[in-house]
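Appendix C reproduces, verbatim, an entry submitted by the partner laboratory led by Prof. M.T., so that reviewers can inspect both the input and the predicted structure.
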Amino acid sequence: MNHPQLATGQGLTRITDVHIHVQPWRELKPHVLEVMWRGLGQERDRMIQVMDDPRALLEIMDRAGVWRVGLVNYPSPDIMGFTDATNTFAAKYAQADPVRLLPYGGVHARFTRDPAGDVDRLVDLGIRLLKVHPPHQGFPANAYTNGLESLGQIYRRCEERGLPVMIHTGTSIFPGARSKYGNPMELDDVAIDFPDLQIVMAHGGRPLYMNEAFFILRRHRKVWLDLSGIPPVRLLEYFPRLPELADRVLWGTDWPSPGVRDLRANIDQFLALPLSDPHKKAILETNALALFPSPR
């Protein structure tokens, strides 16, 4: 494996990308898949191979010097097309290398009939994190405060089971997505009402809500910031005070979304930023180990 290096020459052998999209794309609605393919161009055949064969992904990770990845999956049958089968897909896919492949799944609060039981079933499958995607699931992250009781039950059961929850913040370009539900301020309620829940705030509210995202990160010690979807060259423009909270920042790319063509290219751009080596190492390696302990 070709490991990236810090300025001191120290190799980074435990990089975790907490946010990549390896999903059952065959479930996507045609108009959604059209948008996905538009951003991938000549990478289409390789992406089909990756979705079908974990070995293809592991080879890409090896070339990029990435140790582990988080496989983002969640149900969104009415907007994106993903059904609950996405959970089984993630769990089965990760069996190819349970140390390096971290399966994520979800419970759709508007469709579940057994919120707590469905969370338990995710845990039984080996799912390592529950993903909530407000713009793709059609409700704000704090909708339990306005009648969607099942969402509160999902959060409560995740808190009880020690299952982290990732919540999408920011916009979405896919047809039918409701970006008004991407404001990170909704996470303020979630962090207050479920104080022991580990919350990963995906994308830092980009490209509209970065100030709100940083406020949430500063206020709540169990909230993590996931950098996926943020161009590394703009990271310190979006979050100029990032070093203050570098101990709760997680590396992620959103690969293979439009604009993210290569896992290693994003790492190299990040390593070129004027951050200290300890901060870079924390963001790329050690913070994710605190959230996702590894047996090796």
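The longest helix spans residues 277-291. Additional entries are available on request from the coordinating office.
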